[in-house]
Structures are given as C-alpha cells and as structure tokens.
C-alpha cells in the first residue's frame, strides 16, 4: 500500500507529499446549501486531509457578480495567503477589460477562471479576447469549465481555442465530466501540449485518472476537487487509491500545478 493511502486507513493527515488543489471555490452558492464554505471551514478539511494549498474562485464570481466575487476571492486569499491563491474570474458580459485591469497585477491572483456554461457564452467567443491576450502576456494559466455536449464549453471549444492560442496554458476543468468527455479531453490534450487535464467531477474514477496519465503524462494532469461545491475527499481518494506510481501521484497531486504556476502562490 502506498503511504498516502495508508494515512487514510490510519485516519491521520498525510505528510508524504505537497498536495495542491487546482480547482476550488469559496463562499455560498445561490442554488443549494454548502456547509462551511468560508476560509476557516475549508482549512479544517484541508488540514484533516493534508492538503497544503488550494487555488480558488468565489462562487459569487463564477455565478452572479464577477466584480464583487473577485473582491471576495481576494479577501479570502488575504486571510490565509500561505494556503490559498485566487483565480481571477472573467464574465464576458461584465467588463472583462476592467476586471483584468483591476486585479491582474494583484499577487493574490495566479490564474484566470472561466465558466462559459454559467455565463451563457461560448469559450470561442470574441468577448474572451482580452483573456487570451492577458494570459499570453502574463503566463497565467486559464481554468475553464468543460462539459461534453455543452453549447458553450464542449471539448471542441477547448480544441479551437488551444489551436488559436498555442502560447496559453488551458486547464480543462472536469476534463469534460462524462465518460465521453474524458475520452474527448484526452484526444484534445494529445493535440495540444498546453492543454492540461483537471480531474474533479461526479462521474470519473481512479481508473480514468490513471488512463489520463498513461495517455498524456503526469505532467499534463492535475488534481482538483471543486471543493467545497464537491467534497475534496472524494476527488482526493480517487488518486490516493489509484494504480498510479508514487512519482505520478506526487505530480498529479501538486507537482504539476506548482510548475504551471511558476512560483506564484502554490
């Protein structure tokens, strides 16, 4: 048994490797109740599981109000900058240029978050042009929601954006979610070396994550949880008990995303 899985059975935080959650959120969500979505509540779970750092965007930013939500993200990161970093959320309908100008140089932010499904706007649309320009210049990775079959963020949209902007690092959030989406995300990542597969979601398994790593490499797959929207322990368990090697597991759990951030935040 690997030492990370052993820590789970012994009911103690792991201390073997530095775990960085590349896809987290914070704050209440308007559609349903999320328990303990504040910094203190999240840190309790992270400490219990041995998660060192989380890169997050506020639920308010991705859903209703990018400006107020980005301010909330900055405030949460400010409470524990050694444990949290922020994604700057861009809603294409809510002054993308202004949000990038306001927060782009703030050290609390280390990447950009897009949610085309919630914002009813395709990833390939012209309103995202400021994002690609900023990301190419700043080297910020861009985490985008993906969902197979979506009119806004299907894997074909990721494929098109990656071809248009080969200098931008794209994290395919959820890797398409469904079994078909996972297949499609692997195909897109094989075509574009700066497309990174992120593993959180409600449908995939440890076997799917192993297949991602075998197909595209551990340096192209990152752990994310959607925490606290989804409990981070579910996504974490898939990796801890998977058939990855110790080296692959360490890369997926934190090494790869730390390298992508280039020393910022995590």
UniProtKB/TrEMBL annotation:
Entry keyword set: Hydrolase, Lyase
GO annotations of cellular component type: cytoplasm
Matching Pfam families: Amidohydro_2
Any one Gene Ontology BP term: secondary metabolic process
Segments forming domain Amidohydrolase-related: 21-256
SUPFAM superfamilies per the UniProt record, alphabetical: Metallo-dependent hydrolases
Keyword Metal-binding in record: no
Source taxon at top rank: Bacteria
GO molecular function, one term: hydrolase activity
Protein name in UniProt: Metal-dependent hydrolase
């Amino acid at each position: 048994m690997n030492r990370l899985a052993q820590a789970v059975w012994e009911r103690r935080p792991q201390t073997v490797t530095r775990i960085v959650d590349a896809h987290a959120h914070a704050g209440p969500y308007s559609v349903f109740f999320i328990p303990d979505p504040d910094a203190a509540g999240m840190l309790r779970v992270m400490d219990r599981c041995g998660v060192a750092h989380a890169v997050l965007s506020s639920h308010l930013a991705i859903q209703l109000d990018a400006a107020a939500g980005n301010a909330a993200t900055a405030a949460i990161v400010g409470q524990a900058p050694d444990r949290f970093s922020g994604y700057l959320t861009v809603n294409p309908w809510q002054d993308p240029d202004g949000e990038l100008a306001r927060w782009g140089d703030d050290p609390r932010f280390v990447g950009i978050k897009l949610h085309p499904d919630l914002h009813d706007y395709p990833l390939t649309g012209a309103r995202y042009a400021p994002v690609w320009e900023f990301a190419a210049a700043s080297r910020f990775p861009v985490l985008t929601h993906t969902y197979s079959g979506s009119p806004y963020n299907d894997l074909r949209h990721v494929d098109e954006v990656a071809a248009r902007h080969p200098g931008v690092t794209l994290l395919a959030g959820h890797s398409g979610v469904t079994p078909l989406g996972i297949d499609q995300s692997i195909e897109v990542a094989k075509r574009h070396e700066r497309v990174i597969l992120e593993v959180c979601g409600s449908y995939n398994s440890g076997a799917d994550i192993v297949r991602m790593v075998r197909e595209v490499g551990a340096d192209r797959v990152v752990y994310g949880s959607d925490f606290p929207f989804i409990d981070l322990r579910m996504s974490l368990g898939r990796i801890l008990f998977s058939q990855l090697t110790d080296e692959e597991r360490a890369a997926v759990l934190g090494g790869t995303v730390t390298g992508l951030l280039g020393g910022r935040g995590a």
